[in-house]
């Protein structure tokens, strides 16, 4: 007989020997399932206990499936995912379809390819105690997603403050003329270097891509004067460029002229040397003849020289003492013959050897330096 049948006065195996006592024992499992079934809309009588248990299992399975499906997510191509497990960093997630444990893991996507920009501007004091209005635009990209999210509270705000500080530092160490005119590129590079120096200890996970130094403006009170100064400096640079271009254009011509003059000098040198050698050769040929018959050779050379000299003149000499009547002279024929004789002699005969004769007869006392016979010899020749 079971312990709980009517009429059984045995002891309750759970220690509940007295129904009227305070010790009720452990709860009935069937009653627990019935209560759950009632809550989920089931009936709590008869064999509904087993049915309600199966329903609970189904509900739990559905919940697990929903929990598993809720963990799928996608990281875009330009992004990196930063994964945390119970708030602790566990790594970066690559682009693509991924899964995480919902309520356990947390993934924050960060765009690491988009180039972002932060502007900076304001009125700043220069090294020469002038006030200038400057504008700067910093372009950057996220290089480390974890540092960008968790190294500082707001990486963008930190970069903005670093940019403003670097810009004021660089502007304060340059003059206003450099800021407005020729020193703009140097200021841009110095500002870039100063920004990187400031943000390096904070490890913001940011890489500065470019720094654009926009045109600065002087105060409105002196704007016209500075515009004139800028225009003058631009004209100066333009003139310098034009002079350099002219120099580059003129240099090849000058070099060509120099080379041409060198070649002409070399040719002239060779020509003079060859002519001197030719004169020396003619002198060597003439010297034996002169030594054999000096008078005949001297007279022959005189006649040849006078022929060459007089052939180029257009004057006609007449002895007025011996001829009492003026005869008609065909001057035009004489001129034509003179010119034809001159051209023929220039083509057929070499240069006159007067210089050679002078050089050979310099020490001869009977012949003057010009190669002509003395006055007595010419008078005896005419007689």
UniProtKB/TrEMBL annotation:
The chain crosses the membrane at residues 53-75. It is a single-pass membrane protein. It comes from Shewanella pneumatophori. GO terms for molecular function: peptidase activity. The keyword RNA-binding does not apply. PANTHER family: MODULATOR OF FTSH PROTEASE HFLC. It is found in: Membrane. HflC and HflK could encode or regulate a protease. Residues 70-230 form the Band domain. Residues 338-349 have a biased composition (Low complexity). The lineage of its organism: Bacteria, Pseudomonadati, Pseudomonadota, Gammaproteobacteria, Alteromonadales. Belongs to the band 7/mec-2 family. HflK subfamily. HflC and HflK may interact to form a multimeric complex. Residues 372-383 have a biased composition (Basic and acidic residues). It comes from the Bacteria. InterPro entries: Band_7, Band_7/SPFH_dom_sf, HflK, Membrane_HflK_N. This is Protein HflK. GO terms for cellular component: membrane. GO terms for biological process: proteolysis. Keywords: Hydrolase, Membrane, Protease, Transmembrane, Transmembrane helix. Coiled coil: none annotated. Its main location: membrane.
């Amino acid at each position: 007989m079971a312990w709980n049948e009517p009429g059984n006065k045995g002891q309750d195996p759970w220690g509940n020997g007295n129904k009227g006592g305070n010790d009720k024992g452990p709860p009935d499992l069937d009653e627990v399932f019935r209560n759950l079934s009632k809550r989920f809309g089931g009936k709590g009588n008869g064999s509904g206990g087993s049915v309600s248990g199966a329903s609970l299992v189904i509900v739990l399975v559905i919940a697990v499936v929903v929990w598993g499906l809720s963990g799928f997510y996608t990281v875009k191509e330009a992004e990196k995912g930063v994964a945390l497990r119970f708030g602790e960093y566990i790594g970066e997630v690559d682009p693509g379809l991924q899964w995480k444990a919902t309520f356990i893991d947390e993934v924050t996507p960060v765009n690491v390819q988009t180039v972002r920009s932060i502007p900076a501007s304001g009125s700043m004091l220069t090294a020469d105690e002038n006030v200038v209005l400057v504008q700067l635009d910093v372009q950057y990209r996220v290089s480390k997603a974890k540092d960008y999210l968790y190294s500082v509270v707001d990486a963008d705000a930190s970069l903005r403050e670093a940019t403003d500080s670097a810009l004021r530092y660089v502007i304060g160490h340059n003059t206003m003329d450099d800021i407005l005119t020729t020193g703009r590129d140097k200021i841009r590079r110095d500002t870039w270097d100063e920004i990187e120096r400031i943000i390096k200890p904070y490890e913001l996970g940011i890489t500065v891509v470019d720094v654009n130094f926009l045109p600065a403006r002087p105060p409105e009170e002196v704007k016209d004067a500075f515009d004139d100064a800028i225009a003058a400096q631009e004209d100066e640079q333009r003139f310098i460029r034009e002079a350099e271009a002219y120099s580059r254009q003129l240099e090849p011509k000058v070099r060509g002229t120099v080379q041409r003059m060198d070649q002409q000098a070399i040719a002239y040198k060779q020509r003079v040397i060859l002519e001197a050698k030719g004169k020396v050769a003619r002198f060597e040929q003439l010297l034996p003849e002169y030594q054999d018959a000096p008078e005949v050779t001297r007279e022959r050379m005189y006649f040849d020289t006078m022929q060459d000299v007089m052939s180029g003149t257009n004057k006609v000499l007449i002895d007025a003492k011996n001829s009492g009547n003026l005869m008609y002279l065909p001057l035009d024929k004489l001129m034509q013959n003179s010119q034809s004789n001159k051209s023929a002699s220039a083509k057929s005969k070499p240069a006159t050897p007067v210089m050679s004769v002078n050089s050979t007869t310099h020490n001869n006392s009977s012949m003057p330096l010009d190669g002509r016979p003395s006055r007595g010899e010419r008078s005896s020749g005419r007689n």
